[in-house]
Amino acid sequence: MPLEIVTIPCLSDNYAFLAHDAASGETALVDAPEAEPILAALEARGWRLSHVLLTHHHWDHVDALPAILERHPAKVIGATADAHRLPELGLQVAEGDSFTIGGDEIHVLDVSGHTVGHIAFHAPASKAVFTADSLMALGCGRLFEGTAAQMWDSLSKLAALPDDTIVYSGHEYTQANAAFAETIEPGNPDLQARIADIASARAENKPTVPSSLALELATNPFLRPQSVEIRDRLEMQDASDAEVFAEVRARKDAF
Asked: Given pLDDT bands bounded at 50, 70 and 90, which one contains residue 103?
């Protein structure tokens, strides 16, 4: 059975996620931005935390952890490379490692770029990947610590997952990302349809996260350096994919 995944809006524009295995009762929390909504979601469902999965060290992904652990003692899992600046970890992991939540095997991917040591958690049986601030809905994280080359390598790993993978990213930035994406590839009909869907969802205060990887591949300019339109607009027809990505990221930084 796939994990039951619940999306929890936190703070002003963060998301946390609960992944629950009905057979075992195990429940994992992915990131800890704000205690109150996470604790309320657990209580409403009668779930107890067994694991907390941390993607990276930024405060808006870890600060609520002490208050959550006080109510729900759980094994905290995070990156070995980030352990020196994460809360105390019960399990340190790196790319290629895996562990189980109930009957589902969770695979660890190094997705450095936004930070060095950022990881993602891929649950193939549940067709889910938790990407936080690496691959985002219609975007990718700003390069606070890593390089464009690192982020392109990370996004390439995520892009290689099955198209029907659902991408659970860390923030409600989609409408702002859409405004930028339209300046990069305005002739993309899939993007135009997505922009309309985003506007409709946000008008009703509905989340635009998660999204499907297939949709990201079709519309997210950070995954589309091969697009002829993007290359023509950037006048980078003969550049490598990594170079085109770096220019798109630089333009987003200045947008």
From this structure: confident
